Amino acid sequence: MLAVNWTENSCRPNLANAAAVWYTGRTAAVESFRLATQSGLKQAVERKGTMTPSVASDATTRFSSRVADYVGYRPSYPSEMIAFLTRECGLSAQSVIADIGSGTGLLSRLFLENGNQVYGVEPNAEMRAAAEQLLIGFPNFTSLSARAEATTLADTSVDFVTAGQAFHWFNHDLTRREFERILRPAGWIALVWNDRQTDTTPFLSEYERLLQTYAVDYAAVNHKQVDPSALQRVFGGDVGRVTFDNRQRFDLAGVTGRLMSSSYAPLPGHPNYEPLMTGLRAAFDRYNENGIVEFLYTTELFYIQR
Fold it and tell me: Could you give all domains of the chain from N- to C-terminal order, each with its CATH number?
């Protein structure tokens, strides 16, 4: 099963990051964690019966049965973001970070590797446990069982509030008040999304068509509903935006895992599951090159000073 990640700054490609590595290239712990949890998660789903995203309507629970795939197949974030935040927003190794909706720790890891103290705020027990295991080597990581709207952090205690692939799940009014409460004066909010490109290659166009046809609530949970004007309505003031290139390379098992990491993908037993899998295999067979397809992303970073 192959899932290779690399990133490129949108203006200055970093070709060193494009070196092919097995699995996600984050650490060997990712693969061992996925293998250790995959059977347990499968058994949990079987005990509970078939779960679908429409059943798991609470955003804090809809990824519970997908943690192993999320760990194994979701893209990381471009390391160039750290350099940008350092240059434009005054990020330093001494900055304290609250990573909200931190999930399995993909975004937290970038700041931990920068030397930052990071508080990972995550309400989903399964996702939080994955982060705690994968980030066990970072003593500067603190895992908190809490929601974006009530983080349990002290007043004026952090320099940056971040959220990776998560802000669209939050209650925006309550979250704004909570961010303002925990941020120090002149602190920054940094919201990040890996925006999967939907029409830049024939495979990605077909993948998007399959999602629109068979995914359960794809349109309802699409984070593309969040843009600078929407964020300005939430936070007021100026909203900065910068983009980076990001990509993954998958074999068939990898692209299947990437699909099943998404909360809107129907699970086995759902009537849409088999036709979606059939369509995915057909698209892979049609468009792969030497057994590999690429997922291309535009990583969007929105940054707001309070």
Answer: 3-305 (3.40.50.150)
What single string gives the DSSP state of each residue in 140-197?
TEEEE--BTTB--PPTT-EEEEEEES-GGGS-HHHHHHHHHHHEEEEEEEEEEEEEE-
pLDDT in tens, 266-285: 999 999 999 999 999 999 99
> Is residue 120 within 8 Å of 105, Cβ to Cβ?
yes
Q: What are phi and psi of 174, to 5 degrees?
A: -65, -35
Give the strand order in the sheet containing 158-164.
3-9, 240-250, 293-305, 183-196, 158-164, 96-100, 117-121, 141-144
Is-contact 291 226, C-beta < 8 A? no
pTM equals 0.80
DSSP string of 81-113?
A: HHHHHHHHH---TT-EEEEET-TTSHHHHHHHH
Q: What is the distance between the alpha carbons of residues 281 and 275, in angstroms, rounded to a whole number? A: 10
Instruction: Of 273, 285, 256, give the one whose Cα is nearest residue 68.
Output: 256
* DSSP SS3 for 45: helix
Q: For residue 252, what is the enclosing H or E element?
A: helix 252-260
Give the type of residue at 273.
Y
Could you give the angle at the alpha carbon of 103 between the alpha carbons of 88 and 167, nearest 5°? 55
Output the six-digit token pair for 247. 């990509």
- Nearby residues of 168 by Cβ (< 8 Å), 6 or more positions away: 221, 223, 225, 226
Question: Hey, what's the torsion of the CAs at 201, 26, 105, 229, to 10 degrees?
Answer: -30
For residue range 47-67, list pLDDT tens digits in order.
Answer: 333 333 333 346 655 666 788
Chain CA centroid to CA 34, Å? 16
